């Protein structure tokens, strides 16, 4: 979905396809017909954006990429951004910390990202010159040391050089966006600024995930100010909302939280304790007493963005305002990323339910951008 910012900039609104399991590009194409085309029809828009997740083994299949490009054209869909965070097996029965491997100190992560850049250059619409790829924030914090840090920065510099070659070869500009996430080597905006300051700023910036920002009790205004000071750009944003429980120590609060315990994904949990952020790597640890439960909990569980009760929707609205409400947009790529539909309480049990939920999220986000002055095209 395309919108026009008051300054004339083109804004792209999409949802991330990592909600749909697919092992190869033909599988991605099939899911686009099964779900995404129906979301577009439900929204009654001439074209709909989709942020693709493509597993590593599928990236280099050029023939399948051509078939996918034709499928996008046929279904009136467009791709301007890729989610390059999960490497593969994102829909395994248990994902947890496996999603952080390989990390940026490993060759496989660098080569995967280079392949994604070449793929995105092939898929970008003819009238769009710039695409974006979000990626993990170097790696999971445990076992990370100076050697891994140095090697990861070398890997990023190598990818920046490849992105420059991609633009020279194809005329398409692709930028990389590190996505701060709780528990990772880079989990806060301050850490992102420290790591990325001066590192290929024309090619590498951040993906501002609103759920992650809220879980760390950071604000959109604080994030934008810090990034501006460091000279780090917001390459894309993931429109997402976290689980929020104001009274986690009460019987009702614990019952609510217990309903979000599930074995597939990691749900980092945070609480303000003595004016600082304290946390656990997963929700069961917090419920077992690792957090005092005296104040609000925020949980890394992506919940539908159009839902207000027990979510950080207010924080999301504020973040969108910081990114799209000024005289000039801070980013032009907005990707709704609620990948947890299949593990939520009261999850849709059929295709139509999921299509309706995704459409509602996009409608809500579109309306927020319109309220900030954008015009739907």
From TrEMBL:
Whether Isomerase counts among this entry's keywords is yes
Q: Which InterPro entries match?
A: Xyl_isomerase-like_sf (IPR036237), Xyl_isomerase-like_TIM-brl (IPR013022)
- Could you tell me the keywords of this UniProt record? Isomerase
Keyword Isomerase part of the UniProt annotation: yes
Domain (Xylose isomerase-like TIM barrel) ranges: 60-216
Question: What's one Pfam family the UniProt record gives for this protein?
Answer: AP_endonuc_2
What GO annotations for molecular function exist for this entry? Answer: isomerase activity
Protein's recorded name: Sugar phosphate isomerase/epimerase
Native organism is Solirubrobacter pauli
């Amino acid at each position: 979905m395309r919108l026009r910012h008051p300054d004339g900039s083109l804004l792209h609104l999409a949802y991330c396809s990592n909600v749909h399991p697919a092992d190869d590009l033909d599988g991605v194409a099939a899911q686009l017909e099964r779900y995404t085309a129906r979301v577009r029809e439900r929204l009654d828009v001439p074209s709909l954006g989709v942020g693709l997740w493509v597993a590593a083994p599928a990236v280099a299949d050029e023939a399948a990429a051509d078939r996918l490009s034709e499928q996008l054209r046929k279904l009136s869909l467009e791709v301007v951004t890729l989610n390059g965070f999960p490497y593969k097996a994102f829909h395994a029965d248990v994902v947890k910390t496996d999603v952080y491997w390989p990390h940026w100190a490993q060759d496989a992560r660098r080569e995967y990202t280079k392949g994604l850049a070449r793929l995105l250059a092939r898929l970008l619409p003819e009238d769009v010159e710039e695409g974006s790829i979000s990626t993990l924030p170097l790696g999971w914090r445990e076992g990370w040391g100076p050697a891994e840090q140095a090697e990861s920065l070398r890997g990023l510099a190598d990818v920046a050089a490849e992105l420059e070659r991609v633009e020279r070869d194809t005329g398409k500009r692709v930028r990389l966006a590190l996505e701060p996430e709780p528990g990772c080597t880079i989990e806060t905006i301050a850490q992102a600024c420290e790591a990325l300051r001066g590192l290929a700023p024309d090619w590498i910036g951040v993906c501002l995930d609103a759920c992650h920002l809220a879980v760390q009790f950071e604000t959109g205004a604080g994030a934008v100010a810090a990034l501006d000071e460091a000279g780090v750009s917001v390459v894309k944003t993931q429109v997402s909302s976290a689980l929020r429980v104001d009274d986690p120590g009460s019987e009702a609060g614990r019952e609510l939280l217990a309903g979000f315990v599930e074995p597939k994904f990691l749900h980092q949990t945070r609480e303000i304790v003595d004016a600082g952020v304290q946390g656990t790597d997963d929700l069961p640890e917090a419920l077992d007493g690792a957090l005092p439960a005296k104040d609000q909990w925020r949980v890394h569980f992506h919940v539908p963005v159009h839902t207000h009760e027990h979510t950080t929707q207010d924080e999301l609205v504020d973040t969108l305002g910081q990114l799209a409400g000024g005289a000039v947009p801070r980013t032009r790529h907005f990707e709704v990323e609620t990948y947890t539909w299949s593990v939520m309480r009261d999850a849709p049990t059929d295709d139509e339910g999921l299509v309706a939920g995704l459409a509602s999220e996009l409608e809500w986000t579109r309306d927020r951008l319109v309220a900030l002055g954008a015009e739907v095209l």
